Amino acid sequence: MSDIASRLDAPARIQVSKTYKLYVGGKFPRSESGRVYEVTDSKGQWLANAPLGTRKDARDAVVAARAAVKGWSGTTAYNRGQVLYRVAEMLQGRREQFAAEVATAEGISGKKAAALVDAAIDRWVWYAGWTDKVAQIAGGANPVAGPYFNLSTPEPSGVVGVVAPQSGYGFSFLGLVSAIAPVIATGNTVVVAAAADAPLPALSLGEVLATSDLPGGVVNVISGRTADIAPTLASHQDVNGLDLSGAIAAEGPGSATELEAAAADTLKRVIRPALDQAALDWTNAPGTERLLSFLETKTVWHPMGI
Predict the structure, then answer these.
(1) Is the CB of residue 194 less than 8 Å from the CB of residue 184?
(2) Please, are residues 102 and 108 in contact by the beta-carbon 8 Å criterion?
(3) Which of 164, 203, 237, 282 is the most buried (most CB within 10 A)?
(4) Do the strands 295-303 and 148-156 form a parallel or antiparallel pair, or are they unpaired?
(5) What values do phi and psi take at 163, rounded to 5?
(6) Please, is 26 exposed, middle or buried when counting C-beta atoms within 10 Å of its C-beta (0-12, 13-18, 19+)?
(7) What is the pLDDT of residues 179-214, one digit of tens each?
(8) What is the average pLDDT value for the chain, to the nearest integer?
(9) Which pTM was predicted?
(10) β-strands 295-303, 241-243: how paired?
(11) What class has domain 22-29+54-303?
């Protein structure tokens, strides 16, 4: 007991600072550039160093996402729902950590940050419940004149790039979850360009996903300058859809207008950003629009037995 008491009376131990890394292919690599950048809170105080992702990192993430498409889209909708629910369970266990990261990233009170994290957890549960119900609203039997069955069913588009909502409005984490969850709920895989000035909650989310039975490559998170990462996702020929929720709805380099033009060259499905980001409230109840945004409709004709 005396030995334990002497240890308790010892000087304060050195704080172990966390090293944030990218989340790509189910692993946690450093940026291929070997570089990091400083992340500060709303008062300019240093919080951590985040990996400075590059275009090469984004391309590597697309490769990982493409490799995961077949397995994830082939998983039953029920099982996908179980995995999404598991994400909510794991987030609930780390609620305090995420509330602290959101509070410092956004410069908001701990109470409001906790409410936003709770909303993000609930969002995972909500979309988990939709995984095996999307086919009921997006597909059906079509009436045709002839001895045929004509059935339409939804199928995932493939790889979706997401420009995460930026900080400054209190929704860098809730907005991120609201963009990711419906995309993977329907069998797509994702490459995320995290909010450049508030990437820590997104990078920590990678740690949760890695322990939530989610196959590697289904979600990939890249931190760094959005102007470096987003154009690569927009122009990449192996990316099938693009969510520009966090892009600036204006003209100029790196803007939503330029990214949408780049996406048009490869016929991507695109979600445009809100014209007024400050008026966008991610706490509003989600609808089915995002669930249906990156789905294709497959129609099958089958002769009717006589």
Answers:
(1) no
(2) yes
(3) 164
(4) antiparallel
(5) -90, 105
(6) middle
(7) 999 999 999 999 999 999 899 999 999 999 999 999
(8) 90
(9) 0.90
(10) unpaired
(11) alpha beta
